[in-house]
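Key result, reporting period 2: structure in, sequence out.
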């Protein structure tokens, strides 16, 4: 399982858990969950490529910053994504994100995500790899 939405956690927000056998897979699955929250990803064409570079010594901080950047790109440039290539080494993230500008005629939009929250936010090492719990303000 890559990610699952948590139905009865937050009334006005959207909560999910994402999983990965390593950090690269965890970050990819978190990004896909955020993308699915914003739009039906199969309706988004990968026409535009955006590169995100971030640094943070703490994994939970790096993931929080990454999700914040995805939301920022949606707000600033009206981008939604459907594919991610992630590379993480020693507190440095390089993500190549593929998607398109928001187009209500071509895409099925879901939620206007405003922010990632610290409510229930957690990144943890588990037996199978990694797990993140995230609540998005919509």
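The corresponding designed sequence is given below.
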């Amino acid at each position: 399982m890559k990610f699952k939405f948590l139905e009865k956690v937050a009334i006005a927000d959207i909560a999910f858990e994402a999983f990965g056998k390593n950090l690269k897979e965890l970050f990819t699955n978190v990004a896909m969950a955020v993308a699915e929250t914003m739009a039906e990803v199969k309706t988004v064409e990968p026409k535009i490529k955006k590169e995100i570079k971030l640094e943070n010594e703490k994994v939970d901080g790096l993931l929080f910053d990454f999700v914040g950047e995805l939301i920022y790109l949606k707000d600033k440039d009206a981008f939604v994504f459907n594919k991610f290539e992630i590379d993480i080494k020693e507190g440095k993230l390089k993500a190549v994100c593929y998607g398109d500008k928001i187009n209500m005629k071509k895409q099925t939009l879901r939620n206007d995500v405003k922010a990632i929250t610290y409510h229930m936010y957690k990144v943890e090492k588990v037996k199978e790899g990694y797990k993140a719990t995230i609540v998005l303000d919509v």
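The mean pLDDT is 95. The chain has two helices and eight strands. This case is discussed further under Risks and Mitigation.
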